[in-house]
Amino acid sequence: MSKLKDNIIAQQFKDKKPLITYICGGDPNLALTEKLIPCLAEAGSDLIEVGIPFSDPLADGPVIQAAAQRALQSGTTLKKLLISLEKLRDKIDVPLILMGYYNSILNFGEERFARAARKAGIAGVIIPDLPVDAAAKLPVYLAEEEISQIRLVTPNTSRQRLQQIASQSEGFLYCVALLGTTGANDQIYPELKGYLDRVRQAAGKLPLGLGFGIDGPEKVKKIIDYPDGIIIGSALIETIQTGGDEAEMLAKAAEFIESIKAAMPAAAVK
Prior knowledge:
Belongs to the TrpA family. This protein has eleven helices and nine strands. The protein has 270 residues and is an alpha/beta fold. Helix 1 (30-43) packs across helix 3 (78-87).
């Protein structure tokens, strides 16, 4: 695993609380994705998660499920997505993270995926349905390509499990803020501070990113003091979809990101 101080993703947490944004690759098509990612970076996203569209995204609510269906209907595949992201490698200066389900990667080929992700400039990978103790070779292949594997924890993850997961996560630890699927409701886990304090004891210096259920500036203001970074996905996708055409979609995305950044004041910097 990469040393924390040298990790390109962890560096985004060094002097600020970063905004991490999620979009589904290929939603509604790859041409827009190639324009949307630079737009998000320019508007203030510090890290960008790009979802690999999948027909049965178990951890995702209806908004991201619909986004995945639009992407699949437009012909997006993992291979095509990686080719598109490679085009952006020298056009943006924020780390890109791929988020997807293990079946997609297994079908593509674990070693082949790691090599292709490195070629595309991917800094990290999140796989919600690959347990930390699974007998998979992917972590080895990712390490060989110097790609961080970011792990997830939830409010009901046991203390022992927390330590195991944190010890194998790189860049940051993805803390799910609610019990359920992302975008499914707007209720943040009521004991958020205690939950993150417990995670922090296991994670040590590993930064904590908080996601699932964060839908706008007001909620960000309420929780900004607790995590090391904020992750927003479903609310961004919903906002983009309110645009009537491509130009308006990009404008809506930029406006939304700017509103979130405005809710993350200098006082939030560690």
